[in-house]
Amino acid sequence: MDATELNSQFHKWLNNSTSLVIQYVVVTFFLFFLLFVWKRTSAEYARIQQKYPDNKQIKREIFYSMIFLLMLGTSVTLVVWLNKHGYTRAYKPIDKYGWGYYYASFFLMLLVHDAYFYWTHRLMHHQAIFKHVHKLHHEFTNPTPFTSYAVHPFEGMVQLGILFVIVFTIPHHSSIVTIFFGYSFLVNIVGHMGYEFLPKWFVHHRVFKWINTSVHHNLHHSNLKANYGYYFNFWDVIMKTEHRKYKEHFEAVANRRAERKSLSKPLEQELAIQDTIS
Length: 278
Description:
This protein is mostly helical. It has one domain. Helices cover about 65% and strands about 0% of the residues. Helix 3 packs antiparallel against helix 6. The protein is globular, with a radius of gyration of 21 Å. It starts with a helix and ends with a helix. About 25% of the residues are buried. Residues about 265-278 have low confidence and may be disordered.
């Protein structure tokens, strides 16, 4: 790789990293402002933990997230280069495998990433590794949207490994990889935002009960030895690592929301009557 190519790759890395940082800032700052500032009082009933994080925690979360995003920008740039030179299993056009496979590959990526995350996450909790690496992420016991990528750089490298597992093993169109990681980003933020808005029946539904909730991952931050999954909880169920009171905690938040809603109705009706009289 000559100087011209290196310069070109540097600018691509800079563009990719800048784009990722902007996306992170827009989404996380919007959610934080919405839930922790603007709607703090009205949304308080949906808080999983009633205590609010301090400014010191938030600054540390943003700092470590920025490091991770620069690492992610490097990985994306490398994958684009590998795609260009035919080293990955990327394909064009979509018709090569058809639209059915195009959508199926997204769900295949979810399953592969979920398994990868569960087992690498459990590895991070091994006593020989935890105190040096994963402990950093668990210092944020009361997570916010900014906690999503606030990890130790070594853990960041491990978690970014899924990108290379996917592009080297799964035939894929580049656009579905972009969609997949966009979805992964949103799931990560929802799992850390500290609020739960899903209905009470969700954790009892025959299908939806297997999908992780914000409460599910929040419990992992407050209880180190439970709830290691990312998208789904079937690995936690199979390996008996799901928090034994997960559904109780979820229902407690749902009941709090229902109670707040029932209390607000008489007030709304009273205001409506007053408006009618006046």
